[in-house]
Structure formats: structure tokens, C-alpha cells
């Protein structure tokens, strides 16, 4: 599929990204393919960009553990086979984009931005689900992978509740959210969040626990760093 190769390479090589993506739709996209996308995923307004973004995100998540392995590539294939009627002869286009992503390791932010534009912000939960699927190929979810998936959810503007619902369907434990770390509900006011942070930070501050010594000090320091990260994340979301 020549349109996929064009979408993948032009998309990832930097430059004025908006202009590059704007030119993607000039590639030939068969009526058969357009019909399949519209039937399976109504509302996608830019099929080449949608497909490219899915491949990029799934590859990026797979790369966190190192080399993209055959089973992870098969997981990417599976989405296109089941949803868009891809056949073995179509996989070379996917492989070329995977190799491009592996070489360039593009930032998620512009990729997700283009995905949202291509889908008019539909199918955001789908992309997060696909990220988890490729991450769980080896039945392990590393801390680094979870961190990148959390960033993906943030860029997709998905709430913690939606994120947790996806994890529940995948039989995963509840997501440790920054609100949970601070012990406050999502509905808490900014002032309640700040108050909770100040209280907990004072309890676990290194100066406060230095006299305990040993493992207790280490655990308190880890907890203090977790509190700082959680407060910083909520601050970015709420802009305080």
C-alpha cells in the first residue's frame, strides 16, 4: 500500500508536521480500503494518518522493553487483520513504518495530536487499549511502559476513570492515580488537594524522618518523591 509508506515516512521525519500530514491524503487510497475503514470505524476522516498513528504508538510502546519482538509485531498485525481486512501481502507497509519508528523514536505528543485530528477525537480509548495490548504480550507491564502509557492517556485527554475502565477490561489492577497517591477523590477542590499534599509531604519529608535510620528512611524518601510527582501531575492537569 504505497499510501501507507508515504504517510509513515513523511509523517515521522519532522519539519512542519501539519503541512506534511496535510499532504498525506494526496496518496492514492483505494475505494475498497476507504469503505472498510468507514464500515469498521465510522468517523475517521483521514484514514492514512489514522493507520500510521496506530502503528507508531503501538511500536513506541513495544520499544520501551528494547527490540520490537515478533509477537509484538503480530499483535500490531492482528488489529489490522481483524478490523480492516488486511492480508499478508499488506504487512510490508506496516513493517516499513515499524522500522522507521524504531530508527527515529518520534515523540508521542505530535503523533497523538495528529491522531485526534484524523479521528475528530473519536477512538481515543481504542488507541489506549491497543497500547496495553502490545505492552502485555509477554504478560508483563514494566514501570517504564506504564509511565509511557499514562502519558499517552494524558495526551488523549482520557480521564483516570476511563483509563481504569480499560484496565479493568484487561484484568489489570486499578491504576495508581496521582489523586490516589494524595488520598483525595478526583472531585476534590484545588485547595483540598494542596492541603492533602502539604500534610503528607510534611510527614514524609527527609528532614522529618532522618532520625529513624535504615530502611524506614529509604521508604519515606520514596513516598515523598511519589507525593511530589503526584502533586506535580495534578498541577499540570489543573494548571495551578
From TrEMBL:
Origin superkingdom: Bacteria
J domain ranges (all copies): 177-239
Alphabetical list of InterPro entries matching this protein: DjlA_DnaK_co-chaperone (IPR050817), DjlA_N (IPR007791), DnaJ_domain (IPR001623), J_dom_sf (IPR036869), TerB-like (IPR029024)
Name the record gives this protein: DnaJ-like protein DjlA
